[in-house]
Amino acid sequence: MKFPFLEEKQILEWKRRLVFWSGAVSVGVVAIFFAVACEQANALFHKLLAYSPYLPLILTPLGLMMIVFVTRKFFPGSQGSGIPQTIASLEKNESSEIRDRMLSLRVAFGKIMLCIAGLFFGASVGREGPTVQIGAAIMHSLGNLARFPRHDLEKGLILAGGAAGVAAAFNTPLAGIVFAIEEMSRSFEEHNSSTILMTVIIAGITSLALLGNYSYFGHTSETLVLGREWSVVIFCGISGGLLGGGFSRILIEVNKGLKGRMGKLMREKPVAFAGCCGVALALIGLASGNSTYGSGYIEAKSLLDANAELPESYGLLKMVATIVSYVSGIPGGIMAPTLSAGAGFGANIAHFFTSVPTGAAIILGMVAYFAGVTQAPITAFVIVIEMTDNHEMILPMMAAAFIAKVCSKLICPTPLFHTLAKNFLPKTERRLISSPYHESRRATD
Question: Distance between CA atoms of 378 and 322, rounded to whole angstroms?
Fold first, then answer.
């Protein structure tokens, strides 16, 4: 159909806008589907636990072995969080072939299905990091169809898709924008601002229309009186930063490669290594009273609502379970498990500050540990503000987040996701080249 009153340039511009808007809506819809499916998978796993707490000793190892096998054979590039892959795709020197594979709809589909499977088998993973890669993949793929300018395609649309993924996953639009600026792109260009903003708005409206207006962890009203109570801010910032930095340092070192027999098993027999990780997850689950499985959303919310029956070691055990899940090689994020472990650490710290509201210490623990892991303090306090609907503690959360970042750098000098992104590219190239999918594509080219 031709429109004589529109010039060809205007028609192309409107075509791009329509594809852009439909992409933003698609990110919101897919994120919601993903969220509901993950919750159902986690619920089904806990129903199985009701039959026997020892069932994960068999189910989890077999499940992780299956997931790693399918990931490596059919969906290379979908393992892990998804944030490093998205950051790596923004590298200027990265080839378009690798970028197209990392942000393909095929990988996005595998990410969704295998992350859901991971939660069904009891892995300590979240869906928020994967949603970043999925959102970026959707926008990147639609951008190719609409023939967006090269600059927009390689930078703006990928950033916008990732930001929309965070916004839709947590129902935190402001955090989505901040995440894109602070974490995914260490430099922010005005050229991309409207692209990111509009994508987040449209994805957020889609989520709002389908799920309603809600806060991820409900509403909390805890406050801190300026003065002696602020000592908990400093303590949470230091401890959360050191623990978060230690967590990140472990993931980075393991990502470089383990030494000894375990390292050899990880390199040469990744499926068997995933089985060993599954056994470790089951044992951690038994030690925690079945509280370390899944994303940790239920446990963190129960701590904030002051009706939790969790062991004192919950924060530490959740941290270890998340490390084991990540190094196993399955697709899955660390954002939600990190917030949950931080809530556990905050609950521990509350015992030492009896004059401070327990909920306030838990919130500060979440912010500090998240900031320590990601070294993105602005994202940390903005995301927790929106998730808890608590604006009374903005200043304490900001202070704890920035203290945590400084302390985290003492143990882990480089940010986790950016370091993993740099290490991810060479491994991805080898996996893509050796994968059956790559061979079949070469045969048809």
Answer: 23
Q: Which residue has the tokens 């600026």?
A: 181
The 3-state DSSP class for residue 333 equals strand
User: Per-residue pLDDT for the chain (445 aa), expressed as one digit of tens each?
Assistant: 454 545 666 666 666 677 777 877 888 888 889 988 999 999 999 999 989 999 999 999 999 999 999 999 999 888 888 888 888 887 755 556 777 778 888 999 999 999 999 999 999 999 888 988 998 888 888 777 666 666 555 667 777 788 778 877 777 777 777 787 777 765 445 445 555 556 666 666 676 566 555 445 555 656 666 556 778 999 999 999 999 999 999 999 998 877 778 788 888 899 999 999 999 999 999 999 999 999 998 899 899 888 778 999 999 999 999 999 999 999 999 999 999 999 999 999 999 988 888 888 999 999 999 999 999 888 898 888 888 877 778 888 889 999 999 999 999 999 999 888 887 765 555 555 445 444 444 444 4
Query: For the CA atoms of 390, 396, 399, 405, what is the dihedral angle to 10 degrees?
Result: -60
Cα distances (angstroms) measured from residue 46 to each of 56, 333, 432, 436: 10, 20, 35, 35
Domains and CATH numbers, the chain: 8-39+48-211 (1.10.3080.10), 228-425 (1.10.3080.10)
What pairs with residue 331 in β-bridges? 80
- Concatenate the DSSP letters of all residues of 434-445 into one string: HSHHHHHHHHH-
| C-beta separation of 363 from 393 below 8 A | yes
User: Does residue 80 sit in helix, strand or coil?
Assistant: strand
Neighbours of 85 (CB within 10 A): 31
